[in-house]
Every structure is written in structure tokens, then in C-alpha cells.
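Possible regression after last week's pipeline update?

I re-ran a chain I had predicted before the update to compare outputs. Posting the input and the new output here so someone can diff against the archived version. Not blocking, just want to make sure nothing changed silently.
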Amino acid sequence: MERLNRWINPLLWVIYLALLAVLLPHTAWAFAVFEPDGQRLVAWSAAFAFEASIAALTYKLMQRIETAPRRKSAWVRWRGSYLNVYAGGLLVAVAVSALANWSHALEFGTATAATRQFPMLAGVLPVAFGAILPGVSFIFAHVLADVAGADVDADPELERAKKEAADLRRELREAERRIAAAEARAAEAEGRFAAAGDLFARLMAESKRERILAAAERWPSLQPAAVAIIAGASPSYVSEVLSGALD
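New output (post-update):
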């Protein structure tokens, strides 16, 4: 069924364009009536322009129907769908095509058994087989929008589920950001702890020289007398070690 639904919309467009192709010669004939002899190219060009504009405006009107507000009143939906420039342009193009096809039906229509038995049909048939055909563009615009699924209100449960999923994704991203920040702080603290451990090990080393160098590197602004207290050495030996380190 899903595979069939995917083909419905393209199939409807093929049917609709085929209908416009059928109307094209009738519209061209109507334009040719108002052109000098031998100017059939102009008539066909004008007819193609009108029929092509009907197809293009039908597509734009379909999009407007799809995007019309669905949770508003029927009047608001109708106004958003049909009170726009695309519907106005389509109405004009359809009116020209309808007049052309109606005129063609009147010009070439012949009496049938139905019209002889029911004379009133003589005025109805040119409308049914001529003028009304371009008007189906409005019907196709609405049907195509329906096939696209825009005329069906969104399922409240589905919308709620989508919102909850979006909220969960946002919370997950925030949690990942916090975890990354925590890991960075932990790595920094671990580095500091390792550095502090190294310093403590050097300050507690057996070698006085190592203790003096560690204290001097960690606290370079200390006076030799203070370094001597930390390292447990004499000030003169501290001066000697530091002088040698500087050399």
C-alpha cells in the first residue's frame, strides 16, 4: 500500500497534464480565429502559454493549500488556500481556456440523438465537454494537496511524541556536554595531582641537593634561607647548589 501511495501523486499529475494537452488544440483554435491566416504559430504559442500557466499556477495553488493553517476555522483555511494571487491568476487562465473550449464545442458540436430528444442538452453539452474541463484545475490542486497529506491534521499523540523525542535529544546533548566538561576538569585535576605528587617526592628525596632544586623550582621567589629550611640544609649549601644550577 505504501508503494502504491508513492505512485498516486505522480500518476495524478500525468493525468492532469494529459487533460491540459487535450485542451491545447481547442485553445489554439480559438486564438487562431483572431489571427490572420498563416499565423497558426502565434495561436499555438498563446495556447501553450495559457495551458502551461494553468499547470504552473495549479502547482503553486496546491502548495498554498498544503501550507494553509489546519487548526483554524474553515473560513480561515479557505481564505489561506484560495484568496491569493495564485488562485486569482489560475482563475483568469482557466476562464480564457474555458471560453476557448466552449467556443470550440459550439462550433463543431453536432446534433445527437440525445439533443434531438432533449433539446435542453444542446446548451449543456458544450459546457460539459468544453467549458468545464479547464475548471477541474482547482479540483486537481485540492486533490493533489490531499494526496500529499497536507489536508490531514497532525496526530496529537504523534506531535507529543515528536516533542518528547526532541526534548530528550536536547537533554542528552546537555548531559554529554556536562560529562565532557567533567572529564576535562578531572583530567586537569589528575595532572595537577600528578605534578603535586612529583613535587612531594622530590621534596622528600634522600638527596639534599634534589630537595633544594625542587623547592627552588616550585617557589623561585624564596630566599636561600627559606629554601634551606624546607630542604633541611644549611644556607651556605643552598647557595652553593643554586649557584651551580644557575651555572
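Follow-up from reviewer: compared with the archived run. The longest helix spans residues 156-203. Marking as no regression found.
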